[in-house]
Design a protein that fits this description.
The chain is mainly α. The chain has six helices and two strands. A two-stranded antiparallel ribbon has the order 1-2. The radius of gyration is 23 Å and the shape is elongated.
Length: 189
Amino acid sequence: MVVSRSTSNARRYLEKARQWPDRLVVLGDALATFNPAYGQGMSVAALGAQVPGREARRNALHVPGAARTIQRAAARSVEAAWTLAVSQDVLYPEVRGGAPTLVDHLAARYTRRLTKAATGSYAAASALWTVTGLKAGPTHLLRPASLPHAITGPPLPALSAPPLTPRERQIMSALDRTSGGANPTPRPV
């Protein structure tokens, strides 16, 4: 097993090459690597791996230019993840590659508010999952369904304890009694 401790993002804009060899397609980490904290690398690789099959159903793969078409489509699957990753990473002072802009700061603040709202709002949570699951681009977070939640915050108060039903509380009480309590008082040594 190989463990990587890299937190860098790297993108290769191969779709912009002037010339592209037929029958060559670059996917996965060879096309873009992401900070693993965001959990996007495998998703982007999987989305890219779907492109040749989709293209094969629409057109023949052996025709000249098919590999270039596939490469461009695979690059589109990288774009949303790339935007999310670099817009967050640029906020860290030790990151090389540019300073955060006012838009970066505003986007980060909006995302934090929407994330907090998602703890009590299905619409906010759904928007976040759609974008982080790479089913839609970051602009999806600005749709009217989620915008009010980011502005007003979560509609429900923060929980002070797990939301248990009366039956679950009975079970927990029974477990506490049989185990001597969930948090027995420590005895002095």
